[in-house]
Structures are given as C-alpha cells and as structure tokens.
Design goal:
By secondary structure, the chain is an all-alpha fold. It is built from five helices and no strands. 79% of the residues lie in helices and 0% in strands.
Length: 148
C-alpha cells in the first residue's frame, strides 16, 4: 500500500470538512449582508456587522476555500479516481468556478460595507443567498450520481 493510498481517506475527509466550512460561509455572509443593508451606516449595529463579516470572510471562508481547492486538487490527481472524458466532472468544476466567483463578489461586497458604500438592497442579498445551495446541489449530484 502506497503512502498516498493510506492518505486518501484523510485527504477526502479534509476536503469534505473544508467544503462544509466554505459553504457555511457562502450561505451565512449574504445573510449578514441582508441585516447590514438595513443598518444605518456608522451605527453600532453597522460596525458590529462589519466586524462579523470581516472575521467570517478572513477567518473561516478564505482558509476553507483554499483548503477545499488544495484537497480537491489532491483528490483529482488520484490515479483512476476521475475519468476526465466523462461530462460530470466538467459540470462539477463549472459549479466550483461559480462558487469561486460568488466568493469573490461576496468579498467585494464586504469591502463595500466596510467602507460604508453599499448600494444594494437587503432583497438583493436575500436572492444571492439562494445561489450557493443551488450550486451545491448540482455539485453533489454530479459527484454522487455521475449521470454522464
């Protein structure tokens, strides 16, 4: 048994845990934005949201995203694990790209809130809050069912 074969279950475990942490942030940060959008700029409430958003983004989301990508790449590099000629892996990777783009936009919106220059409504952030779960469903379906 090679060292990689022995490490595989641990790499997979770390990937799953990282994904869970990243998804939690992708789902929670827009919810904070919903409430922050209704707070008066400069108020104690607004300043509290700024702190919560910064800590979530920099303390949880960014490290979890990096870990997700690193452990996912290690899994993808596992010989025989992925048939790169099948379509499911490309749909899954497109879903990951959407999550990365969403993460980027959430980071930009957090910077807007931090500078008291948010221009979006609470309704906008409520709608954005639905995107990660829809993409997650797609990704899990591709990985588990491998439909094509």
């Amino acid at each position: 048994m090679s060292w990689f074969s022995a490490a595989y279950p641990w790499i997979k475990t770390a990937h799953i845990v990282s994904v869970v942490a990243w998804m939690a942030g992708l789902l929670y940060l827009p919810r904070l934005f919903v409430y922050h959008a209704d707070a008066e700029p400069g108020s104690d409430k607004s300043e509290t949201f700024k702190l919560m958003e910064r800590r979530l983004l920099h303390g949880i989301m960014n490290p979890a995203m990096i870990a997700t990508l690193a452990f996912g790449a290690a899994l993808a590099a596992t010989p025989g694990l992925v048939d790169w000629l099948r379509g499911w892996i490309w749909v899954k990777l497109a879903g990951v790209a959407v999550l990365l783009l969403l993460h980027h936009f959430q980071s930009l919106w957090s910077e807007d809130f931090a500078a008291d220059r948010n221009i979006r409504s609470a309704r906008f952030y409520r709608l954005v809050n639905e995107i990660p779960i829809l993409v997650l469903i797609l990704i899990v379906a591709m990985v588990v069912a491998k439909p094509f």
